[in-house]
Specification:
Length: 341
Amino acid sequence: MFVWVKRIMAVVLAAALALAMTSCTKPENKVVKSNPKVIFVTDVGGLGDQSFNDAIWTACEDASDEYGADVRCLESNTGSEVRSNTEDASNDEPVVVITCGKNGARAVKRIAKDHPDINYVVIDYTVDQPNVASICFREQEGSFLAGVAAAMKTETNEVGFVGGINSSSMRRFYYGFRAGVKTADKDVKVVKTFTGSYNSRIDGMSAAKKLYAQGADVIFTASGLDNTGVIKYAGLKNFWVIGSDKDQSGLDSNHVMCSMTKNLSVAVDSQVKAAVKGRFKAGTVEYGLKEKGVALSDKAGNLNDDEEEAVEAWEHAIVKGQFTVPYSKSTYADFKIPKLK
């Protein structure tokens, strides 16, 4: 009987020891990963500009659906707000912060070095830092096509260009446009003005009024929210406008002849995907006609057959590298009217 008691006590002790070991073992830590954070800091004007900011935000939302990212937007009305919003975004543990324009580039240039573990994307400007990807477009190529269409459409032999803030990006728009006009008809005159902003419909209307008074009956506008003022004035005075960044024919299909668009979805999608999947690379990526980064869009169907054929022919020539579109004062000075092959 004593043996049986010893056996029972041994079983009880073993069970107690197992229970003790179980109670002392720490439970496994379960880490619930939240969706990766992508933050877009707008340029001045914020959302609702129906141009550059809106186009980038739409691209961000599309990328969110594709890669399961938590996409947020911080709107800016001034250059200082762009900087403070970029700082706030950097402190929110994102996988990538997306900015654009001169203000965004300035902010990232100052802030990125203090946040080496954060990825940054700057659109339309170049920032040379190890955690920054710069997305640039050869706006001059799409603008060349806009110039061809404008020169063929004008009845006054005078067309206009409205830029926002005079910058290297705006000069790419302008000199590409001017080269296209010259190529299609060297007798057509180009007049230009800059609004000095990207967030004022009133400035856009004033600029359009100035160029219209000089005789321009087709105006190419590349000035953010100011574009809406140019288009509004075109409706009042009945002349043609070429929009920019996104197809703006929806604003006035009777007066927006076509638009020089940027395929921001391609650029933003690739950067968000890389950041989310841990494959982000710093450096500069450039998009032109060949990469389908820019295009001349005519959703309203306001280009006639001859204009469409000419635009397609010159687009083919640029893609094939038959000539280089000028993008600055000096490259325009050296530009010779090319011949289609």
